[in-house]
Amino acid sequence: xxxxxxxxxxxxxxxxxxxxxxxxxxxxxxxxxxxxxxxxxxxxxxxxxxxxxxxxxxxxxxxxxxxxxxxxxxxxxxxxxxxxxxxxxxxxxxxxxxxxxxxxxxxxxxxxxxxxxxxxxxxxxxxxxxxxxxxxxxxxxxxxxxxxxxxxxxxxxxxxxxxxxxxxxxxxxxxxxxxxxxxxxxxxxxxxxxxxxxxxxxxxxxxxxxxxxxxxxxxxxxxxxxxxxxxxxxxxxxxxxxxxxxxxxxxxxxxxxxxxxxxx
Length: 264
Description:
- It is a single chain.
- 34% of the residues lie in helices and 14% in strands.
- By secondary structure, it is of the alpha/beta class.
- The strands form three sheets. Strands 7-6-5-8-9-10 form a six-stranded parallel beta sheet, sandwiched between helices. It has a two-stranded antiparallel sheet with strand order 1-4.
- Strand 8 (158-161), helix 7 (166-175) and strand 9 form a beta-alpha-beta unit.
């Protein structure tokens, strides 16, 4: 069978697993998270209940994209995203772009995205966001002003911080509307100095996510129904069939980090 693998194996015995939040299992064995090895091999042994069969109209490339899409699905579920919500996505990397796609599939259309790389903003524009803002020469206050202006003077209901830096979380907290939500997706900084008190006084909720849970069926359904088209995110392909060696893999990883690729 053609399957998409959810790349984590929980213990199934702890209180987190037994109550359904298995992504928070303290004994989680997650691929490519040291000391657990990754899955770049021709064959992988994996529990069948974390392997999800792909419909005929979903390609293997699309199946592989269930992983980053799952992060976005989990984030949208955590903030209880509604079609009426206005959204700011900070960061137009793979997760930010997936967040745009999933938010659109959930019915949202009023979406602003920010980034410092114009090529990634161009992809966001092709996905149909309301506005894509290059913040490379802007201060935090200018970014907040730009987001508000693009929403006709209103602040966004939901802000997805897909960067996780002090500067991006500061923008997220200050740009969210009163009573809005900030979802911290990116994990750039372990510790931050943030304007928490002012955000609390405006009842801005901070929502965290860690990977995902129970999201693969949703991702496959969105891909199969064509509610999501991830083709624009698959910017480069490297053929490893018959040439699966360390140099090819090393070159692919280096290429994926040079700033010109979204997903390889």
